[in-house]
């Protein structure tokens, strides 16, 4: 029996090696075909003026499908029975479903984002966890955003689609609220006057929109005001930083102090 096995071994190795070479060739050709098909699809969708997010998502989904089909063809070329492989795959599909539950949820979330379009590439969004950035890429499982300090955050599509999303880009105007505290000895009317004058003479403030300086609360050490105005969304960060600095300078020039937390301690002498 051993002699028969040894006699047949070279022939079996040759046949296996031949199938392996064919499988490698099929794999190489298949990968090139997948690239070509994806390239043709992208160009066709771009000519049809389809949204870039939909193009990227469709391209990614097509890649996954074609890669799986190529994998099946390659293992069939190696001599594996497709029917047996599919039967095994079907028997473990439940276990795979549990293992990939999160990924399947993300895939469904990606489809929801694709259909409902709560945002597009290049728009600034904030998710319910406070992740704030510009959408750079929408993949089948994840969405990538880039923050103002150039960090890339990868968000799973499942929680993103099922949670609340704030889209700042859809609204051309953005309100700035800057809290500032003034001393209890300060004149509130004077503070409001000089701060409104600052808003009226600051560039890129939307003068046709409502500008306010309101008393928000009476704190332990200060009267807490809110300086409120509107700017274009793209000017939000720059104008907020400018106003925060110049509010301090304006109050200093007006002789209005911004107090720090303090405590008065009164000592009583026992008789």
Walkthrough of the structure:
The chain is an alpha+beta fold. It has three domains: about 1-90, Orthogonal Bundle (Helix Hairpins); about 105-165, SH3 type barrels, CATH 2.30.30; about 175-255, 2-Layer Sandwich (Alpha-Beta Plaits), CATH 3.30.70.100. The protein contains eight helices and eight strands. It has helices at about 1-45, 50-75, 80-90, 95-100, 100-115, 155-160, 190-200, 235-255, and strands at about 125, 130-140, 140-145, 150-155, 165, 175-180, 210-220, 225-230. Helix 1 (about 1-45) runs antiparallel to helix 2 (about 50-75) and helix 7 crosses helix 8 (about 235-255). The longest helix is centred in the N-terminal third of the chain and has 46 residues, at about 1-45. The model has no long low-confidence stretch (mean pLDDT about 85).
Inertia-based shape: elongated
CATH arch. level architecture of the largest domain: Orthogonal Bundle
What is the fold-level CATH name, i.e. the topology of the largest domain? Helix Hairpins
Order the strands across the largest sheet as they lie in space.
4-3-2-1-5
Query: What is the count of helical runs?
Result: 8
Largest sheet properties: 5 strands, antiparallel
Poorly predicted segments = none
The residue-averaged pLDDT reads: 84
Which series of helices and strands comes N to C?
HHHHHEEEEHEEHEEH
Radius of gyration: 32 Å
- Summed up, the domain count is 3
Name of the top-level CATH class of the largest domain: Mainly Alpha
- Number of DSSP E strands: 8
Helical content band: 40-55%
Strand content: 15-25%
C-alpha end-to-end distance: 116 Å
Structural class: alpha+beta
């Amino acid at each position: 029996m051993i002699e028969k096995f040894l006699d047949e071994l070279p022939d079996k190795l040759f046949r296996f090696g031949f199938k392996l070479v064919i499988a490698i060739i099929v794999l190489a050709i298949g990968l090139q075909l997948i690239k070509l098909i994806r390239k043709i699809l992208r160009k066709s969708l771009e000519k049809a003026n389809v949204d870039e997010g939909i193009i990227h998502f469709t391209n990614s989904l097509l890649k996954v499908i074609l890669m799986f089909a190529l994998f099946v063809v390659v293992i069939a070329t190696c001599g594996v029975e497709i029917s047996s492989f599919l039967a095994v795959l079907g028997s473990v599909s439940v276990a795979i479903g549990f293992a990939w539950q999160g990924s399947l949820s993300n895939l469904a979330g990606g489809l929801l984002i694709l259909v409902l379009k709560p945002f597009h590439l290049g728009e600034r969004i904030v998710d319910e966890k406070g992740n704030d950035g510009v959408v750079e890429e929408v993949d089948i499982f994840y969405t990538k955003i880039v923050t103002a300090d150039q960090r890339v955050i990868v968000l799973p599509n499942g929680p993103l689609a099922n949670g609340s999303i704030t889209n700042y880009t859809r609204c051309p105007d953005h309100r700035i609220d800057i809290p500032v505290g003034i001393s209890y000895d300060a004149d509130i009317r004077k503070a409001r006057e000089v701060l409104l004058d600052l808003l009226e003479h600051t560039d890129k403030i939307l003068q046709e929109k409502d500008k306010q300086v309101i008393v928000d609360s009476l704190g332990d050490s200060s009267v807490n005001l809110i300086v409120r105005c509107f700017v274009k969304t793209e000017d939000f960060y720059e104008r907020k930083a400018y106003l925060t600095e110049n509010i301090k300078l304006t109050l200093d020039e007006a002789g209005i102090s911004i107090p720090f937390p303090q405590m008065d301690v009164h000592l009583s002498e026992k008789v």
